[in-house]
Amino acid sequence: MSEDVLNKVFEIIEKSEDNIVELCQDLIRFPTVNPPGNDYKACVEYIGDRLKVRGFKVEYIRAFGTPGDSSEFPRYNVVARYDTGRPGPCVHFNSHIDVVETGEGWTKAPFAADLIDGKIYGRGACDMKGGMASSIIAVEALIDSGIELKGAIEISGTGDEESGGLGGVAYLAEKGYFSKDRVDHVIIPEPLNVDRVCLGHRGVWWAEIETHGRIAHGSMPFLGDCAVRHMGAVVANFEDKLYPAMAARYTAMPVVPEGAKQSTLNINSIHGGQAEGNEGLPAPCVPDSCRMIIDRRFLVEEELEEVKSEVVNILSSLEKSREGFSFDIRDMLEVIPSMTDSNSPVVKATVAAIEDVLGITPELICSPGTYDQKHIDRIGNLKDCIAYGPGILELAHQPDEYVVVEDMINSAKVMASSTYKLLSQ
């Protein structure tokens, strides 16, 4: 019986190819670049207007007071709920609407959403407007099929995931939109390939380190103290001590790609001395300040406080051993690792759906970077959450980013099947 029902849903999805292409293209054509946070309101209203036609109750929620929220760039989100009228759980599909800057190297127009040889090109096609389109088509097919479901289905379009999610999922979780009395299962259509189910992600600590010096005339640097040289000593100690220590640690988490199975540290930026962007020659000064942003990704086996102490101990040791060295360190972002149990209902339902649709046993993985599961877990305290969607992970944030139409169709079938399995018991 369930096979007959799902075949009817799959047939609707297959006949919706033009629809899913058009939907994905429309979403890409909203240039929701973050920062600064362009066109959020227009994008979420487009999503909401579409879902109202299928009987969804739609809410637009502005994340007042969150980083970046302003009258010019308001942080708008949409949450749409379809209630079947029968008691049961709620399946929630969450997609972020924001995209990163386009950058250089494109051979296609970043927001034209051109369809070429079965691929839709554009910033956000892969990460993750293709996934949002798949989830919407999946849910519409379930509703249009007339099959009996229990409980409720929710779809949300949220902002600011690319900058930490504070104006999106984090804000909604704090307001109760991801609480256990409202939502049971969450699927986030991030681009992690159609044959994978993502259980979670590594942890992250962003921090700013500042080394101090003393300004002096550049012709007499011996009268000053160069903060950039002090930062050079920090980098040298990282190379000699921290990087080798991290390289020796491996996780039992199924993180991909292989290099992310160990701890990593990216030096995001270093700025010292005279500010960039001034015209003409710089003033001849010894820099009295140098700032470094570090991006530390850590494993479920590591404790956050130990991760921090490892860096602080290096800085403290330099303070004792290097003449004139002093520093400040400021936390910018902290995220603990998150991983859903492989036997949880949403994992088992999605694994079974992939086996049904693609005829393969999917790989269970974890993401090298964080995504909005962190807020659903930490703030909403909802553990039954995964990432699953179309798109090739390595294409995210790249020039000529694209999503394959066939992958969107197959992903929509998997999403519809997993939703049916969770709401028909």
Give the class-level CATH name of the largest domain: Alpha Beta
Q: Quote the average pLDDT.
A: 96
- Globally, the shape reads elongated
Q: Helix and strand succession?
A: HHHEEEEEHEHEEEHEEHEEHEHEEH
Largest sheet: 6 strands, mixed
Radius of gyration: 24 Å
Strand content: 15-25%
At CATH level 3, the topology of the largest domain is Aminopeptidase
Query: How many independent structural domains?
Result: 2
Termini Cα gap: 13 Å
Query: Unreliable stretches, pLDDT < 50, 5 or more residues?
Result: none
Strand order of the largest sheet: 1-2-6-3-7-15
Structure description:
With 425 residues, the protein is α/β, with parallel strands linked by helices. The protein folds into 2 domains: 2-201 and 337-423, Aminopeptidase (3-Layer(aba) Sandwich); 203-335, Alpha-Beta Plaits (2-Layer Sandwich). It is built from 10 helices and 16 strands. A 6-stranded mixed β-sheet has the order 1-2-6-3-7-15. It has a 4-stranded antiparallel β-sheet with strand order 10-11-9-12, with helices on one face. A 3-stranded antiparallel β-sheet has the order 4-5-16. The longest helix is centred in the N-terminal third of the chain and has 21 residues, at 125-145. The protein starts with a helix and ends with a helix.
Q: What's a quick, concise take on this entry?
A:
Helices cover 34% and strands 22% of the residues. With 425 residues, it is an alpha/beta fold. It starts with a helix and ends with a helix.
